[in-house]
Amino acid sequence: MSAIVSVQNLRKAYAGGFEALKSVNLDIEEGEILALLGPNGAGKTTLISTICGITVPTSGTVTVGGHDTQKAFRGARALIGLVPQEINLEPFETVMNTVRFSRGLFGKPRNDAYLEDILKQLSLYDKKDNKVMTLSGGMKRRVLIAKALSHEPRVLFLDEPTAGVDVELRKDMWEVVAKLKASGVTIILTTHYIEEAEAIADRVGVINKGEILLVQNKADLMSQMGRKQLKIELSAAVETIPDALADYELTRADDGFSLLYHYDTKGERTGITTLLADLQKAGLQMKDLQTQQSSLEDIFVGLVKETT
Ligand SMILES: Nc1ncnc2c1ncn2[C@@H]1O[C@H](COP(=O)(O)OP(=O)(O)OP(=O)(O)O)[C@@H](O)[C@H]1O
């Protein structure tokens, strides 16, 4: 796979000097779904709108399909579909006219068959002649997606696509995104919902205070999530971990009153049975045992906290 979007040393300082992006580097592979996770004000929208060439960066470059978004804006923008956070539709216009007009703005020849196909994919076809104002909030969100796809973009940016929508619609939207990916569209979405990133992303990026803290394959993150920790509370503190237990991944905690054992829940063996037997052999007395599972949420919260 090759990068369809390449972001290099991107900085954005707003008027007044606030640095919303601090030297961001990011390559987005063709055909992937990348979820950008981050708390409020992290810089997600700024990053997306700068990549799309709507916000002018203070320094750095962005290329989309090889076009520099500053020097070759039209070429880059033609490849991009952007679904904004806010619903910005013409209320008195019909759904079909909305998407037709949007396609026309990009200078694309009329192609109702293509637009109807998009509307079908988004379960909007039977509403095509309805005025936007008569649609529910969730349907309006779908119209935003249809509008963003009207000019056949190769990269689709979705800024908080499921903010404020109910669980059922959220799952429908995930299906829509999966279908778009299957049709070859590269997708970048921002979200607050960790479960959303878990459900649909190929890679997850965590952004906080204008910096990308991590971009990782979801499967790798999942294997981290599969790690569990066993806390062994001891009756008496240990100064060091006994040599007899050197083969185990153990760390001291609580001034030596506890030992922490990390293990992979997906491994065939956890090693706990032999560890407990070996603890006894080493003469250590257990007081209590507790297990704890690390989740993507823990990883996310931990990362964000570290930079706060
Ligand atoms: N036009 C602007 N002028 C000045 N500061 C701005 C402007 N737009 C955004 N900011 C600031 O830049 C920071 C990043 O904002 P941004 O909207 O990119 O965050 P976000 O991660 O998308 O947040 P949210 O999840 O709340 O949508 C915030 O502190 C915000 O106040």
From TrEMBL:
UniProt entry keywords in alphabetical sequence: ATP-binding, Nucleotide-binding, Transport
A GO term for molecular function: ATP binding
Matches recorded under PROSITE patterns: ABC_TRANSPORTER_1, ABC_TRANSPORTER_2
Keyword Iron applies: no
InterPro entries documented for this protein: AAA+_ATPase, ABC_transporter-like_ATP-bd, ABC_transporter-like_CS, ABC_transporter_ATP-binding, P-loop_NTPase
ABC transporter domain residues: 5-234
Protein name as catalogued: ABC-2 type transport system ATP-binding protein
Presence of keyword Nucleotide-binding: yes
